[in-house]
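GTPase HflX, pasting as requested.
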Amino acid sequence: MSSKHSPSIKDSRLVAAQEQALLRARQQATREQAVLVAVEFTADRRRLSPAAQQARAAAAILNRSAIGEEPEIDASASAPKPADLDFDASLAEFQELARSAGATIAAVLIQRRPHPDPATLVGGGKLDEIVATVAATGASLVLFDHDLTPSQARNVEARLPCTVIDRTQLILDIFARHARTREGMLQVELAQLEYQLPRLAGKGKSMSQLGGGIGTRGPGETQLETDRRRINLRLDRIKQQLEAVRRIRRQQRGRREAVPVPTVALVGYTNAGKSTLFNSLTGAEVLASERMFATLDPKLRQLTLPSRRKVLLSDTVGFLRNLPHALVTSFRATLEEVERAELLLHVRDAASPTLDEQRSQVEAVLSELNVGEKQTLQVLNKIDLLPPETPFAPGAIPVSGLTGAGLDDLLHAIDAALTSDPLIEVRFRIPQSEGRILSALERGATLSGQRFDGNLVYLTALGPATLLRRYRQYQLREEEALPEG
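Structure tokens follow.
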């Protein structure tokens, strides 16, 4: 029986070894110089809102006045179109992704064209320029701020004497660097294999393999078919292991839900300061770094609110514009904490020039997870980087995870937003001999108006309904009054 299963085990180990070798090669490559290629497709450029168009028209008028020219009436039509702000922000973000992967940027090449070239994405002329730049800089890596189709990747690699990595591959490599738990490693490997599978390229009959035994005397199985079979076997195994992880998480969640403790999840754009805020609120020591995707594996810590109510705070992976769908699918086990949370804290970088766009990108991913309608508090982090008189949007909670400013307001807002176990106020008359009950109320609720009358203690408690209703036999009726103190 064992001999029948040995080929599958061998194949799985071989694929795992190949993936680790490929990962090490990519990590070694990203320590060297890289050429960044960014492409803006003008035909797909997002139409500006009327307010943005008016702002750009006004800026054009001011520029023409500053150089002594008479402003024209239709300034929006006559003024030259400025560079697309979304493209500039995307390019800056891609450069930060490259640095997070450990690459040294040797050169940045930009191209604007109406549509992507179906063969090479950038066209033959730009590809010649990339080849010349690689030769001049000695770069060993070319990073594309765009996803390459399998045919585009093969055509570009055929022209370049170095490694070619597109946007999704780069993000996957960064995730692989930061994965620490077995769950995180499995999810990264799943996403990598699913991305690699349609990009396999065989050599045709020259790589055919003949099998042994009757019925195998033919062209044989090509190397491409062999690689696909091995990857599919490995994918099935990883999915089984991830399903075991989900089963364990469901069991742990079931034990938590037996004692009703609400979960609050931190979500937001990568590098918005979620981990720093998480550390400030819980006293944890989660890695907080300016590098993108520094936090990959979810963290759960207990948090005590001003009402002394206990909640679980979850720190999750950061989101990104155009986040690869494979990552959202592969990390669904990690993002289950977001799906189960009663309240989301959308942490945003208040000092970011693309604050509103980052919000829309995060909300798009939340909608993909079917949690877009979940109750959410908007938290503006990093206010220590802004002038003191900076105005904030109504309803947003300004905080600084670094200095601790505004954290008390945030805790009170969380307290008020939780509805599954609402805060209620109850008056009690409890015998002093019931020290266990008095201690439980003191730990889990806010007590006021304590009065002593013989062997009885009269008090008013403000706390979660599930706690106070346990002791309803000691509750005072509405017509009963507390003794005079």
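Note for the archive: The longest strand covers residues 104-113.
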